[in-house]
Amino acid sequence: MNKKRILVVDDELKIVEVVKAYLEKEGFEVLIASDGERALQIFNEEPIHLIVLDLMLPKISGEEVCKRIRTKSDVPIIMLTAKIEEDDKIEGLAIGADDYITKPFSGRELVSRVRALLRRAYRESDPLADYLTFNNGDLEVDIKRFEVKKRGENAALTPNEFKILSVLLSNPGQVFTREQLVEKAFGYDYEGFDRTVDTHIKNIRHKIEDDPKNPAYILTVYGVGYKFGGSR
């Protein structure tokens, strides 16, 4: 892991210097971009294993950078930003960020989050079967390719939606609380993101259910959480 290349995107020089110093001390290679346009250029030209991304950037916003990268890559993204409102965190995770850290931040915590994301993103094997089908082929899930198909058509789940679905698939019929889904899917301590999970669940249902209001796959257990109800 000490040879992983990390792209740090922030227009505040002091922040960049601090993040770069902490990461290089841990053995990571660090590339720098001070605006969204340059960040996308570097990402398209260099192999990048993880991105630390500010939201308030010149030229192209961090949100837009994240969205564009998510159209082509599942590279782990940590948003590092002064936006502290819960709605900002929810939006950041909903558009594809894997983690969200607010400024001011702890350098040691940032390194810990980086290492945790890299471990999960680049693990050699997945405990789930590589290819799963449900309800007589109505729903197909390819774990290694991060693909979900509904009646043969790509369901186009975001990386975070896929992570939540994968947790539910890991134990069909088991009820997961929102806290458990956050912990198992994203790997950080639960901090009141009920609405984040609910938003992801709503989006997943619209992509894989015939009738999102009467779901067959992602079932609500009222007062507890969610479970997967598909049959193999």
How much helicity do the residues have? Answer: 25-40%
State the CATH class of the largest domain.
Alpha Beta
- Total domain count: 2
* Helix and strand element order: EHEHEHEHEHEEEEHEHHEE
Q: Supply the CATH superfamily name of the largest domain.
A: Response regulator
Q: Please give the alpha-carbon distance between the first and last residues.
A: 37 Å
Q: Give me the CATH fold name of the largest domain.
A: Rossmann fold
Strand content: 15-25%
Helix and strand composition category: alpha/beta
Mean pLDDT: 84
Keywords: DNA-binding, Phosphoprotein, Transcription, Transcription regulation, Two-component regulatory system
InterPro entries: CheY-like_superfamily, OmpR/PhoB-type_DNA-bd, Sig_transdc_resp-reg_C-effctor, Sig_transdc_resp-reg_receiver, WalR-like, WH-like_DNA-bd_sf
Pfam families: Response_reg (PF00072), Trans_reg_C (PF00486)
Protein name: Stage 0 sporulation protein A homolog
Condensed summary:
The protein is of the alpha/beta class and 232 residues long. It folds into 2 domains: 5-122, Rossmann fold; 131-228, Winged helix-like DNA-binding domain superfamily/Winged helix DNA-binding domain (Arc Repressor Mutant, subunit A, Orthogonal Bundle). It contains 8 helices and 12 strands.
